[in-house]
Every structure is written in structure tokens, then in C-alpha cells.
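In response to the reviewer comment on reproducibility (Comment 2.3), we provide here a single inverse folding case reported in full, input and output, so that an independent group could reproduce the run without further information from us. The C-alpha cells appear first.
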């Protein structure tokens, strides 16, 4: 499925893992941002891009809602995960 393009990346798998360190999470976030920029430069169909981004946002929000004992009380420092 094309809408899953970003969520099937290694970066997204790291972000969705409870076993990755804070540094790994930061690097994965930076890499996911690069993937988003790459998507925008490679695709010409703005509606297609919007659908991918909305789906990715939905998946990120569901990750944010998952309780994690490792990150209890931690503030979100990355805009891609917060918004």
C-alpha cells in the first residue's frame, strides 16, 4: 500500500519500538524527517503526498498514546511526534 510508504521505513520501526534508546529515537526522527522531505521532492501529486502524511501522522499519534514505562514523564522534544 502506498500510504504506508513512510511507516514501512526503518526509522519508523525504531520510533515504534520500546527497546530503542533516546539517541536512536532522535536519529530515527531526523531520518524520518529526511524521508518526508525526499517524498515531497520525488512525488508530484500533492493529494497523494497529503494522504501519505495523514496516514503517517495517524500512526505516530497512536504511538504517542501507547504507555511506555521507559518514557514516563518525559516531554516530547520532537515536533514530528508531537504534532
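Designed residues, in position order:
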Amino acid at each position: 500500500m502506498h500510504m504506508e510508504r513512510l511507516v514501512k521505513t526503518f526509522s519508523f520501526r525504531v520510533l515504534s519500538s520500546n527497546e530503542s534508546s533516546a539517541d536512536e529515537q532522535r536519529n530515527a526522527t531526523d531520518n524520518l524527517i529526511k524521508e518526508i522531505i525526499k517524498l515531497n521532492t520525488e512525488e508530484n501529486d500533492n493529494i497523494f503526498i497529503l494522504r501519505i502524511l495523514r496516514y503517517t501522522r495517524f500512526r505516530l499519534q497512536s504511538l504517542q498514546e501507547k504507555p511506555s514505562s521507559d518514557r514516563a514523564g518525559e516531554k516530547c522534544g520532537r515536533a514530528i511526534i508531537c504534532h
